[in-house]
Design brief:
The protein is an alpha/beta fold. It has six helices and 13 strands. The chain binds 1-O-pyrophosphono-5-O-phosphono-alpha-D-ribofuranose and uracil.
């Protein structure tokens, strides 16, 4: 079964509080999502494999560690996932970025895919799928289905706020995909919004309504 990691780092929790607040404007919201994405990327990369290489410092020869694992593919779920891309790239600047476009049908809450473009060397990469929200789980499940259909094998999912319903659905659909979240909220409301959540992530990031 997929593992679920809830990041309790004080900086992440502090920034998330201001992301949640209804009176936080678009500019500040965007900046905070970017900062939290960087902090989460720091935690999510904790298990990256290392190898020793020989180097020369100005003083002596020594063995020192460098990253040795597969290259990273970063996949935001459009639209709101875009808000987390730059923050992750600050720590993993060489990652290639794919995109999966999905929107949630407001009536059925089912995800509808309208775009998918991944790095051509998809089989050679470990993927991090990012989206601020994991609500019913439909979008994350469909995005990961899309990646797997195209050959992706190792995938992690990272979001800011998750509902228990979405975590359960994603774990059941993709038991091999570990889930990294900043906060596990209480529930979904009758419109499929996370409670207390932060509202519509895409609208708050891009200033739309
Ligand atoms: C939001 C959010 C997720 C999805 C989560 O996107 O960014 O992708 O809802 O809900 P789910 O877990 O129930 O699928 P939305 O469909 O509003 O599209 P947008 O990013 O284009 O605004
Ligand atoms: N999508 C959002 O943007 N917010 C929610 O609370 C649920 C789905």
């Amino acid at each position: 079964m997929a593992k679920v990691y809830v990041f309790d780092h004080p900086l992440i929790q502090h920034k998330l509080t201001y992301i949640r607040k209804a009176d936080t404007g678009t500019k500040e919201f965007r900046e905070l999502v970017d900062e939290v994405a960087t902090l989460m990327a720091f935690e999510i990369t904790r298990d990256m494999p290392l190898e020793e290489i020989e180097i020369e410092t100005p003083v002596d020869k020594t063995k020192s560690k460098v990253l040795s694992g597969k290259k990273i593919g970063l996949v935001p779920i459009l639209r709101a996932g875009i808000g987390m891309v730059d923050g992750v790239l600050k720590l993993i600047p060489a990652a290639k970025v794919g995109h999966v476009g999905l929107y949630r049908d407001p009536e059925t809450l089912q995800p509808v895919e309208y775009y998918a473009k991944l790095p051509s060397d998809v089989k050679e990469r470990d993927f991090i799928v990012v989206d601020p929200m994991l609500a019913t789980g439909g979008s994350a499940i469909a995005a990961i289905d899309s990646l797997k259909t195209r050959g992706a094998k190792h995938i992690k999912f990272m979001c800011l706020v998750a509902a228990p319903e979405g975590v359960k659905a994603l774990q059941e659909a993709h038991p091999d995909v570990d889930i990294f979240i900043a906060a596990l909220d209480e529930k979904l409301n009758e419109h499929g919004y996370i409670v207390p959540g932060l509202g519509d992530a895409g609208d708050r990031l891009f200033g739309t309504k």
